[in-house]
Amino acid sequence: MRDLENSVQRGPTRGLALRSVAVIAVAGLALVGCSSDDDAAGDDVVTTTEAPAATGSLDEALAAEVIGHYADGVYASYTNSLDTATTMQGAIDAFVAAPDDTTLAAAREAWIDARTPYGLTEAFRFYGGPIDNEDDGPEGRINSWPLDEQYIDYTVDTPDSGIIANTTDFPELTPEVLAEANEQGGEANLSTGWHAIEFLLWGQDFSADGPGERPATDYTTGANAERRGEYLSAITELLIDDLTMVTEAWAPQTDDNYRGEFVALPAEDALNKMITGIGELSRGELAGERLNVAFEERSQEDEHSCFSDNTTADLLANAQGIANVWNGTYDGAADGPGLGELVSATDEELASGTTAKIEASLTVIGEIPAPFDQNLTADAPDDGPGRTAITDAIADLGTQTDSIVEAGKALGIEIEVS
Amino acid sequence: MRRAFTAAVAAAIAAVGLAGCSDPPPERVSLNELLATDLGGGTTRNIVNQNAFGLPAKSLPGEDRADFEVGDSFFTQNWVIAPASTTSRDGLGPTFNATACASCHVRDGKASPPTAEQPRAPGLLFRLSVPGEDEHGGPKPLARYGGQLQDSSIPGVPAEGSMEISYRNVAGTFADGERYTLQAPTYSVKEPAFGALGDDVMIGPRIAPAITGMGLLEAVPEATIVAAADPDDDDDDGISGRVNRVWDEVSQKEALGRFGWKANVPSVRQQTAGAFSGDIGVSSPVFDEQDCPSAQTECRAAPDGGSPEVDIQTFEAVVFYTRVLAVPAARDIDKPDVQQGARVFRDAGCASCHTPTLKTGPSDIKALAAQTIHPYTDLLLHDMGPGLADGRPDNDASGAEWRTPPLWGIGLVERINGHTRFLHDGRARSLMEAILWHGGEGEASRDRVLALSAADRAALISYLESR
């Protein structure tokens, strides 16, 4: 049974009734003999304040519908991601079997095609669900970044670096071995996931206006060519296994999985998770780690998909994922109500304002010129269209997050996002 | 009426309980104080997950988030060998212990020493010195090894040696007959690359601590810390508490030591620079030279990644990040065993050194100024007895003295870092083992814990786990 504990505490802890506190106080004193209380009960009673009454309100029937539709949408979204990733696996297998420029181009194209469906699912993170629960959530294996290229393979500076060249410590390159190596000895020591695959398909990006240009010969005549292919196949297989596990956790027609538990939660708890997911993705992750750091540092190393130059599409997919939860629109799922409709039943103005902000950030993220790294060069002007759009996106995602937190309050749900 | 009745009953029971106790009464702190949840004042976060040590202070204004996030990025990412195409992060080594801050402070948390399962885990290091003092009264480094054993190196440069750790079991018994076993470590340097370290070498093992709330501790007024010191134990409670006076590399004068296991570092800035230099081999605006003793010719000949290797903007961002990390809120205060554990904590006298409440003074960072915080430290040195002593003096700290480590966040270490290893070298395998290692000024409290019932011992641990 998966642990459904909530990752966010809600509000102040409710106080014990005075009577039970007093009984505990007496029991405590009896057990701890060696204290010299002369006004024992005076400070031995725990004073607590009652939690403030929830200010918001909830349409229970509609809430149940929104939660059920969310579960359907999550399943549809992961199904899309798994399907497109499986197509990518076929292309990668074909490339490893017969590496040349054509099969490499096809594998790269399949990676690009699979990225947006995955990006849409990142709105389902940050609440300890199947993707990132602390016991066995695979998120750290699936999409961690930025990675230290030297941990995986050679770089332009270090011709002999990486697990691929290290036959002593890694005689076999299996999904299990590479999963075990992930994050060993450092948070940037990433061996698996989308960005490791991306690095093995594109290589480091040194081109002024395009992505990395790893030659297909890295898989034919280059040093460690065969092991590189084994590595790529192994981490692709691992990605598929992980996505399969997450997808099945949300599958309908069974109560014996996370979805079954999720829809059975008290509405406030399920909604708390949904709101936390989009709130945390919106600011801490998207505005912060994915935009702000790269922007401030003008560092290509800090852009999300730095090998393939797919970063702008990644950003848009993440923002669209937030919009999907809010609007209840998911590719592959039937129509149904989203969070916005539920908030609208309580506070129509707040709901429409939030909808407008979510649309505004989608628009401005769409205006960030690709490739993203061209906005990070030393001579990219801060007042040019690229960096202006990034600044606007960071600001819009911030106000959008505030609105999402407010929307939670309207439903009587306090969330805290970083 | 009910309350008056309760008070009478409680007082009666307390009076009965007093019979037979000869220890001096521990200082009183209120239970409410011990059950506070906003441990970091306005910085406190209610988010409880694996990233709970890594969040920006709740009170941090939005316009400061960019600096925080940049600092976070450099805290996490690996440094690489110079010269490299990634020019902002090159300069690793030539000798080093780790490739990133987060290698040891994983998720801004606490490291475990190497184990059978993770024999190469970074996070423990050896400080080295010989008898005597350096020019500022600090430990005297070894001529050929410097003041810290760097056990890794870039290609073409020899590492200085490796750490050898062995443990022997030390058995003991609680008053109720339950037995326990502690593991007592022995440390030595294996395969020293530049000749034997000598018979007079002093090895100070140090584990990487969680970096929770360092900016708040930095903002505690010096007067508060000094006022709590009782170097000659004038109040005769068996607990002294001394300040460490150390050299401030930034201001180039003597200052109060606050950070490090022996309070041998005066500021977050110096602590950060020291770790960049000693642990990663990265020069900074504070320590702008490579850490290569003259005997290490390959180390001295290796290329560097600029001077300094971490530029001032990036360095300041990492310092800022470290200072404004949020303190996670305490939890579970409505649970009876946590409340009972708070009483045990109080009555065992733990709060005599693990001061529950401090107030910060002014700060250049508004979120850190004038906060009531609950770090559970007095930031003072205490003699913890021969069992814990490393025998390696550091400025005014003797070989047996240690700074009271803060306890805030201690209950989240298992969740965030996946282990329960505590104390300066991580020898304790649980919170209870850490308590049982207390000797010297902590011995009376340790003895009170030994006398506890099993239920109260469990309550005490529940209380610590709520922090």
Write the layout of secondary structure elements.
The complex is a heterodimer of chains A (418) and B (467).
Chain A: H1 18-31, H2 40-44, H3 60-97, H4 101-120, H5 139-142, H6 149-152, H7 175-181, H8 194-202, H9 225-249, H10 258-264, H11 267-297, H12 311-327, H13 339-346, H14 348-366, H15 385-410
Helix pairs in contact in A: 3-4, 3-9, 3-11, 4-8, 4-12, 7-9, 8-9, 11-12, 11-15, 12-14, 13-14, 14-15
Chain B: H1 2-18, H2 31-34, H3 65-76, E1 95-96, H4 101-104, E2 124-133, E3 139-140, E4 152-153, E5 162-173, E6 179-190, E7 202-207, H5 214-218, H6 222-228, E8 245-248, E9 253-256, H7 268-280, H8 297-301, H9 312-324, H10 336-347, E10 358-359, E11 372-373, E12 381-383, E13 401-403, H11 413-417, H12 431-436, H13 443-450, H14 454-465
Antiparallel strand pairs in B: 1-4, 2-3, 2-7, 5-6, 8-9, 10-11, 12-13
Q: Could you provide a short overview of the structure?
A:
The complex is a heterodimer of chains A (418) and B (467). Chain A contains 15 helices and no strands.
Describe the structure.
The complex is a heterodimer of chains A (418) and B (467). Chain A is mainly α. Chain A has two domains: 50 residues, no CATH class; 349 residues, M75 peptidase, HXXE motif (A middle domain of Talin 1, Up-down Bundle), CATH 1.20.1420.20. In chain A, α3 runs antiparallel to α9, α11 packs antiparallel against α15 and α12 packs antiparallel against α14. The radius of gyration of chain A is 25 Å and the shape is globular. The two termini of chain A are 29 Å apart. The N terminus of chain A is likely disordered. Chain B is of the alpha+beta class. Chain B has one domain. Chain B is 26% helix and 14% strand. Chain B contains 14 helices and 13 strands. In chain B, the strands form six sheets. A three-stranded antiparallel beta sheet of chain B has the order 3-2-7, with no helix packed on it. A two-stranded antiparallel sheet of chain B has the order 1-4. A two-stranded antiparallel ribbon of chain B has the order 5-6. The longest helix of chain B has 17 residues. The N terminus of chain B is likely disordered. At the A-B interface, α1, α2 and α11 of A face α1, α3 and α10 of B.
